[in-house]
Amino acid sequence: MTTTTTMTGVKDGTGAPVFHLTEEHDHDGGSTVIGFWMFLMSDVLLFAGLFAIYAWLGGHYAGGPSPSDLFRLPLVAANTAIMLLSSFTCGLGMLETGKGQAGAALKWFGVTALLGICFLYNQVTEYEHLQQAGATYQTSAFLSSFITLIITHSIHVIVGVVWVGVLALQVFQHGLIEANRRRVLCFSMFWNFLDITWVCVFVFVYLMGVLK
Amino acid sequence: MSADSPPLDPIFGRLTLDAFPIHEPILVATFAVVVLAGLSVAGALTYFRLWVPLWRDWITTVDHKRIGIMYIVLALIMLLRGFADAVMMRLQQAMAFNGSDGYLPAHHFDQIFTAHGVIMIFFVATPLIVGVMNFVIPLQIGARDVSFPYLNNLGFWLTAVAAILVNVSLFVGEFSQAGWVGEPPLSGLDASPGVGVDYYLWALQISGAGTLIGGINLLATIIKMRAPGMSFMRMPIFCWTSLCVNALIVLSFPFLTISITLLTLDRLIGTHFFTTDLGGNPMAYVNLVWVWGHPEVYILILPALGVFSEVVPVLCGKRLFGYTSMVYATVSITVIGFVVWLHHFFTMGSGASVNGFFGLMTALIAIPTGVKVYNWLFTMYRGRVRMETPMVWTVAFMFTFLLGGLSGVLCSIPALDFQLHNSLVLVAHFHNVAIGAIVFAMMAAIDFWFPKAFGFRLDPFWGRLSAYFWTGGFFVAFMPLYIAGVMGTTRRTRVFDDPSLQIWFIIAAIGSLLIFIGVLCFLIQIYVSIRNREALRDVTGDAWGNGRTLEWSTSSPPPDYNFAFTPVAHDVDAWANMKDHGYSRPLDGFNAVHMPRNTSVGIIVSVLTLIFSFAIVWYMWLVAAVSFGLMVLVSIGHTFNYNRSFHIPADQVARTEGERTRLLAQQG
Amino acid sequence: MSHPPSCCGPVNRVRLVFTPEPTRNLVLRYLSRLLGYKSTRCFIVTFPFIERTVLKPHRIIALLPLVAILSACNAVVLHPSGDVAVQQRDLLLYAIELMSIVIVPVAFLTALFAWHYRASNTKARYEPHWHHSTKLEVVIWGVPVIIIGFLGVATWTTAHTLDPYHPITRIAPGQPVPPGTKPLKVEVVALDWKWLFIYPELGIATVNDLAAPVNQPIEFRITSSRVQNSFMIPAMAGQIYAMVGMETELHAVINQPGDYKGYSSRFSGAGFSGMHFVFHGMNNSDFDKWVADARASGAALDSASYLQLAVPSENEPVHRYASVDPQLYGKILDMCVEPGKMCLSTMRALDLKKGNGLCQPHVASN
User: Fold this and answer.
1) How many Cβ atoms from other residues are within 10 Å of residue B656's Cβ?
2) Do residues C230 and C312 both lie within one domain?
3) C310: in domain
4) Residues C189 and C242 placed together within one structural domain of the fold
5) Do A65 and C357 count as a contact with CB atoms less than 8 A apart?
6) Which of A9, A166, A183 has the CB atom closest to B570's CB atom?
7) Of A163, B155, B182, B375, which is most buried by a Cβ count within 10 Å?
8) Can you give the residue range of the structural domain that contains C157?
C-alpha cells in the first residue's frame, strides 16, 4: 500500500484515511540535537542567573577592592581573542566533518582544545593574580559573584576540552558514523555557546566593570 | 573550606558517633521498623528468586511505562513518610496549649515541618506527576518510547537517591530546620551550622537535576515523537499541559540550581552571596528561588488539570468542551506563571507599584484557570456522567478547587496579603490546592490509568470510600486552619498561648485522621484489587469503554513496544475517531520493532551521586573526591557504548499480538 | 466615639472607595473598545443592575457561614481595631463577594450537572459530539475577565492606598488626620527571639511590650538583628518583614483601647513560637503612665547592654529601659554595634568611590 503523509494526516492511494503505518522507521537519535539544544538553553538560564546575581551584588565591594583595582584588560582581551579563534577553528572542524574528513576534523578540534587549554592557563594566571592581591571569593559579595561566574565558565571549558579528547577516541574507533556526527554537532554547539558566554562576560563584567 | 576550620578526618569528615540519634526512642524504633521492613523485602525477593527479574525488568529498565510506575511507587512510599510528619505536627499543635509544651521539642518540630514540605513537594507531588507523564505521554502520542530512554532511567534514579538522602538524614545527623525553601540567613552557616541544611541542599540539588533531565526528555519526546498526523492542535490536553510543564521545568529549574548552589557555596567555602555581611543580600536568594518556586507551583498543578481534562470526557462519554480554549488557557497560565514570583513576598515592602503589578499578574491567572473549570463543567453538560472513582475525585476536586482559587486570589491582593501572608490562611490555601487539586488529580490518574498499566481495574468500592474520606478529611483538616488564620495564627508555630485556638487544632487533627483512613482505604483498594484481579480484568485495552485517546487503542498492559504499528491521528481524540471510522485492528504483516536496550549506568551513577552527596554533607573530602571521579568516569565510559538498541523480531511481535487476538476472541 | 465594627456594615462604602467613578469609567471605556459599542451599552445598562441586585444577595449568601462561625470567636482579621486593618477587612469581604458571583453558580451547576446528567438518567439529553459554542466561550472568558477587571482595579488602588510606607491619611472613616499631626515614632528590632521597641522621641525602650495612644498615627521603622522576621499586629495593620541591615516602614493607627496580640509571622528558628508581645492601645493618660513606668525602671540601653540582649534567648519576659542611646538603632541598622566592625553605610560610601582599593579590607576606618 502506498501512503502519502501530509500535514493533516496520512492517506492511502484512494484518499481514504489510514489509521496506522505499515512500515517501521528507526527514529534512533532523531531527538538528540533538539534535546541538547534544550540543555544548552537551560545552561543559558544558569548563566543568566549568575549574571543577574552579579548585576545585583557586583557593586558590593564591602570595603575591599573593586574591578578597577583588579581587572587586567590586556590579558582578558587576549583571552577573548583566544576564545573567538577557538570558535573559528571549531567551525573549520565542523566543515571537515561535513566533508567526512575525520583526520582533518580531528586536527581542527585538537587545535580548538589547545586554544581552550591556553584560555584556561590564562584564567589560572588571572586567578593567582587575584589571590596575590588578597582578593578571594571570601572578601566581598562582588568577588564571590565575579569569581563564581568566571569559574563556572572555566568548568564548562574544561568539560569542552575533555569532550574533545573523548570525541577523538570515538571518531578514531568508529569513524564519522551518524552517531559521531551528532556528537560532533553537539560539541560545536556547546563550544560556540561557551564562546558567546565569554563574550558576555567580557562585555558586561570586564569592560563595564572598568568603565564604571 | 574556611581557613579557621579545624582539620577534619579525610574519610569520616565531621561524622562522629554523636550523629546517630541512639538516645531518641522514636527514631530508634522507626529505624528498627525500616530495617525490619527492608530485611523482609530482601528476604521475600530472595525466597521468590526475584532479584534477577527486579534488576533486569525494573532497576535497569528504559521502558517509560516501568519507569513511570517506579516514580509513582516512590511517590507513594514518600507520601507515607510525609504524611507521618503531617500527623506529628497536627498532634503537636493540638496539644501545645495552656502551658503545655507539646511532645516535640523545637529541634524536632522544626525538622518535621521542613521535611514535610520538602518531601511532599519534591518527593511526592513531583514524582507523581513525572510518573504519570512518563507513563501516559508516549502512549497518548502514539510513540514507542521517549526520546532519551537512558536519561529517563537516570532521572528516576537521581530522584530516588535524593529521596534516600532525605531519609538518611533521619537516622544520621539531622534535617534542615529552615523551612522548605530554606531562606537565608536562617539557612546560612551562622544560624544553621549543622548538617541539616546541607542534607536539604544536596537532596534538592540531586532531585532538581533528575527533574531537569526528565523535563528535557519529555519535552523532546512531545515535540519530536508524536504520531504522524498528530499536529499540536490534535494533541490530547494532558499532553498539552505536559508540554507546558516540561517547558516550565527546563526554564525554571536552572534557577533552583543556581540559588541552592550559591547557598551551598556560602556554607561550604565561605562566599558572600546571601550572607548578611560583606555585601551579601539574603533577599537575592528569596527572589532567585521564587523565580523557580512559582513556576514550580504550575509545574505541579498543570498536569493535574490535564488529568481532569482526560477523565471528564471519557467518563462523561463526550468530547471535551472547548478544546481550543483549554489549550490557550494552559499556555497563558504557563506564560503568566513566570511573572508572578514576587507575590510570595509582598510583605518584603517592595513598594506599591511593584506589589500592584505582581498582584495584577497573579489575579490574571485566575481567568484561564476559571475557563478550565467552565470547560469541565460544560463537558459534563448533556453527557452521561459515570460516577466511577476517577470521576468522584474530579467532582470533589471541582468543589475544593473553587475554594482554593478563591483563597488564592485573596492572597494575591497585596493589601490583603499583609494580613494573610504566613498565616494559617495561606497554609490552608496551598493545601487546598495541593491536596484538592494535585493529590486528587493524581489519585484520579492512578485509578484511571491503572487498568492500562496492569490489565485490571481497581476496586470501585474502596476507591470511592478513599475519595470520600480524603475529601471529608480535607475539609475537616483545613477549614479550621482558615478560621485559625483569620484569628491571627501564624504558620510553623510550635506552642500557642491563645487557648481559644485549641478547638480548631483538635478538629484539624481529627481531619488528618480522616485523611489517614482515606490513605488506608487506598492501600486496601490496591490489595483487594490484586486479589480480585480476575474479576476486574480488562482484555479490551479500552478499560472505561469509551476511551478517546491513543493509549486506549493498545492492549492493557501495553506490550514493550506500545503499538504494533505506529498509529496515525486524523482528529483530536484519535482513538475515538478511529472507532467512529470502524477501525479494525490489523492481524498480520507485523514488522520487527526497534527498541532501546536496558542499561545499568543510571543506577550506578546515581548511587555514586548518593555517596558523593553524603560525603560532602559530612565534609568527607576524600570519599567525595573518589566518588565524584568515579561518577565522571562511568558517565564518560557510557558514551563509548554504541550498542544501545535492538530489534524485537517480527515473529515475537506476531506472537504477542496473536495472544491478544486470542484473548479478545475468548471474551467475545 | 468608638463603636464595635460589624461585618457587613462598611461594605457599601468600600465599593465606592474601590471603584471610584473615574476608574469605573476608564474600565467601561476600555471595555467599549474591546467589545464594540452595542455590547458596551448593554453592559453599562446592566452594570448598576448587577451592582444593585446581584451583589447584595451574594454578599449575604457568601458571608453567612463566615459570619456565623467567626462572630462567635475572636477572628481578629474580621474584627480589627485599627483603621488600616478595617480597610483590609473590607477589601477581603469585597473580594469574596465579587468572586462569589462566579464561584457560587459554578459550584451549584457542578452539583446539578453531576446529578442531572448521571449515566442512569437516560431521560437527560445526551449530545456526545457537542463540544463547541461560541456564545458560551464568550461567556466563560468574559465573566472571569470582568470580575478580575474589577478585582484588578481594587488590587491596584489598594496596593497604593494601603501601602505600609505611605503615611496614613485618615484615622477612621470620615476622619482625616488633622494637619500638623506628628506621628508617634517607634523603632522595632527583631532579635533572637524577642522584640525590641525603641521610642526615639520619648527616649525609652521596651522588650516584648508595645503601647500607643489610640487614634494617634504611628510610624514604625523596622529592622532585624540576625535572621529575618515579620512584624505582625493583625488587629492594627498586618505585617511587614523585619530584615537584617534593611529597614522597612509601617504606618498605622489603633482606634480602640485594648490589648492586642503581636508576634513574628516569619519563622526565625528555635525560639520562634515564644516571639510574641502584647500591643496596648491606650488612651493618652494611660499611655503617659506607661511611659512613666518605663522611665522609672532605671535601666539603660546602650551598645553593651544591647549586645547582651541580642544573645539568643527564648520566651523573654517584658522589660523596659528608662533611657536609650540615641545612636543605637542607627548602629543596629548599620550592622556595626560591635566595636571595630565596618558600618554598612561606610561600605556603601566606599562602593560609590569604587571600593577601598587593595588596602586591607574589613577594617573600620573610624
Assistant:
1) 17
2) yes
3) yes
4) yes
5) yes
6) A9
7) B155
8) 78-118+136-161
* Residue carrying C-alpha cell 462569589: C100
- Classify residue A86 as exposed, middle or buried by CB count within 10 Å of its CB (0-12, 13-18, 19+): buried
Q: Strand order in C229-233's β-sheet?
A: C209-213, C276-282, C258-264, C229-233, C238-242
Query: Distances from the Cα of A167 to the Cαs of A32, A162, C30, C343, in angstroms?
Result: 16, 9, 61, 54
**Which residues of B fall within a CB distance of 8 Å from C70?**
483, 486
Q: What is the largest CA-CA distance in chain C?
A: 90
- Does the residue A172 lie in any domain? yes
CB atoms within 10 A of CB B590: 22
* CA distance to partner chain B, nearest, from residue A26 (Å): 6
Tell me, what CATH number does A137's domain have? 1.20.120.80
CA distance B118 to B111: 10
3-state secondary structure of C244: strand
* Residue contact B281–A17, C-beta within 8 A: no
Residue in chain A nearest C349 by alpha carbon: A63
ipTM, 2 decimals? Answer: 0.93
In-domain check, residue A134: yes
Residues of C in contact with B353 (CB under 8 A): 159-160
Distance in angstroms (rounded) separating the CA atoms of residues C157 and C299: 46
Q: How far is CA B441 from CA B280, B397, B448, B459, B583, in A?
A: 42, 8, 10, 18, 31
pLDDT tens by residue, chain C, 366 residues: 334 333 333 333 333 334 444 444 555 554 444 443 333 333 333 333 334 333 444 454 555 555 555 555 578 898 899 999 999 999 999 999 899 989 999 999 999 999 999 999 999 999 999 999 999 999 999 999 999 999 999 999 999 999 999 999 999 999 999 999 999 999 999 999 999 999 999 999 999 999 999 999 999 999 999 999 999 999 999 999 999 999 999 999 999 999 999 999 999 999 999 999 999 999 999 999 999 999 998 899 999 999 999 999 999 999 999 999 999 999 999 999 999 899 999 998 988 888 777 755 444 333
Task: Judge whether B452 and B238 are in contact, CB under 8 Å.
Answer: no
Dihedral sign (CA C184, C187, C190, C195) = negative
- List Cβ<8 Å contacts ≥24 apart for B613-618: B613/B161, B613/B165, B613/B202, B613/B203, B613/B205, B613/B206, B614/B165, B614/B168, B615/B13, B616/B198, B616/B202, B616/B268, B617/B173, B617/B195, B617/B198, B617/B199, B617/B202, B618/B12, B618/B13, B618/B14, B618/B15, B618/B19, B618/B173, B618/B195
* Closest residue, chain B, to A63 (C-alpha): B278
Classify residue C148: in a domain, yes or no: yes
Element (H, E) at C51: none
Paired with C241 in beta bridges are C230
**Domains of chain B listed by start with CATH number:** 50-599+644-667 (1.20.210.10)
Together in a domain, C315 and C196: yes
**Which residues of C fall below an 8 Å CB-CB distance to A?**
342, 346-347, 350-351, 354-358, 361-363
d(CA C353, CA B256): 34
One domain for residues C198 and C307: yes
Dist CA B157 CA B137 (whole Å): 20
Distance CA B240, CA B325 (A): 12
Does one domain contain both C201 and C319? Answer: yes
∠A166-A170-A172 over CA atoms, to 5°?
Answer: 115
Give which of B363, B501, B475, B364 is closest to B423, Cα–Cα. Answer: B501
Radius of gyration of chain C from its Cα atoms, rounded to whole angstroms: 27
